[in-house]
Amino acid sequence: MTILWEESSARLGGRPEAPGVTVRGILTLDEVRSGWPELLSGEDALGSAVRWVHIADSERVGPLLEGGELVLSTGLSFRASAAAAGRFLDDLENAGAAGAIIELVDAQGRPDAAAVEVLRGAAAGRALPVVVLTRTIKFVRVTQVAHRLLVGEQLARVERARRVHEVFTQLSLEGASEQRIVDRTAELLGAAVVLEDVAHRVLAFNPAGTDAGELLHDWAGRARHVGYREDTGRRAGTADWLQTPVGVHGRRWGRLVVPGDLPNDADAAQVLERAGQALTLARMAGRDEQDLLQQAQAGLMHDLRQPHALDEREAVTRAQALGLEPSALYVPIVVRLDRLPGENPTGLQLRERALLEQFAALVRQARRSLLATGLQSGSFGVLLGAPARQLEDGILERIFGQLAEEQAPDVSDGRTNPEEGTPDWTAGVGRTSSSLLEAAAGLDGATQVADIAATLEVRQRRYYRFADIRLRGLMAALHSDARVKAFAEAELGPLLAEQDAGTLDFLELYLRHGGNKTSVARTGYLSRAALYARVANLQERLGVSLDDAESRAALHVALLWHRMRGQVPDGDALHGPARNYGPRVSGTEPAP
């Protein structure tokens, strides 16, 4: 095949370019084109990288080469012999040369047609790019330009390496999060990047402008077909992704992958490898794999609860990538820990984390999956997958029952009070939905249920729904309503004004027993005469008859509102900083 110098830049086809200076690039130089280049062989190898340009006229040039050189020659020692020309080209191929440019002109500077035919025969069928020039050129100019390009390319490579090194060193020094490292990697590569653990769960990702749902669609299924490497590179499979392992050798906990094509694998591999090292350092600095998963789930849960942040398709895709299996229903759950006397915020946070890990382990034992995140200090939220509505309560009873049993102390020796085995947490369950976004919105309701249930004198259930907290739940929902406040203060006015706690306790005891004086006297250790005197005094101060059922109902509602005031957080504080919810209502009967 002949390539005329006027057409060389447009017709030099073949395989994709290697990074840096290539044979194809050298052939497009004006100095080479002025020699009327004709390509005799090796079109497919024109994209090969050129490491150096070497001038040689000796027939035995092989020992002088190390590989990757483009050899310039006038062919004086072999142009008259087909055998000699063949040995010259054999030497170049055996030494790994990138190609040969051979100038064949006579003493008068005209094309040496006989020599061209000798070289054409020797080059036929070779993979090595062999180019013949039939016009005289100055080799020194070719070497000057080529070496300037090579040195410039090397300096550019060094500069890129320095910049990449500085970027990831700074990220490590700043203690950057895994998500930030992934974001910076995607920015440097201009391509989507995904960090996954060994179970192919997506810990962090950046779609780099592409569709996130498409990127993460069936991620685990696709990733399983891409074999792992112990170094940075590609590994053939159903998908051929550029990847780098994350973690120290022998203890890999994940990998960083670019699931797509890249213009330059060599440069991308350098970036990806440094990013993997930065992620490994982040883990060694104190974050572990579970922390990463929890951070990723917390980020998704935050997005799920933001109006219009995600559509259902993207929400489900991202949740599945984090390990939440597709389910018919999703159950919103909030678990609220009781504050222990004298407990500091750190102790509460440690108990919360331990309880969440214990809960997640029980969910896995039940062959279910979940997303979880911390809410305000001392509580965490969960979206639990359930296969069917009729199985929902059975799953919850099993999980929360086991959780309570694992926390209960050993009472077999008779020295521990069984009541001390009551769990120090309360679980609220919101409205179940087949929509992941609707279930996430139900976490607010589950939070309210857990807060209200925590004020119950006796918690007999493993978990609570709104239907389980009844009037107390209504009062909690309306506790900040000005009309309810006015009603309660009107009913209890004299007792509240005088801050008469003893009388309020007696009224609560009376109402709890439905006005049954015999039961009140026995429970309160009162004589009948003392009881009648207290009732009469209370009726006089309140201005109502305690024998009237409607009066007792009104007083019960007002007293319930008064008792719950300050124990249930405001709705706008559900996602804010930790609050002191106050003590739980005691289960001990008040003294009369």
UniProtKB/TrEMBL annotation:
Residue ranges of domain PucR C-terminal helix-turn-helix in the record: 504-560
Region listing for Disordered, in residue ranges: 407-429, 571-592
Domain of life of the organism encoding this protein: Bacteria
PANTHER family in the record: CARBOHYDRATE DIACID REGULATOR, DNA-BINDING TRANSCRIPTIONAL ACTIVATOR ADER
The protein, known as: PucR family transcriptional regulator
InterPro entries: CdaR-like_regulators, CdaR_GGDEF, PucR_C-HTH_dom, PucR_C-HTH_sf, PucR_dom
Organism from which the protein derives: Arthrobacter hankyongi
Domain Purine catabolism PurC-like, residue spans: 26-149
Limits of the CdaR GGDEF-like domain: 311-451
Similarity comment text for this entry: Belongs to the CdaR family.
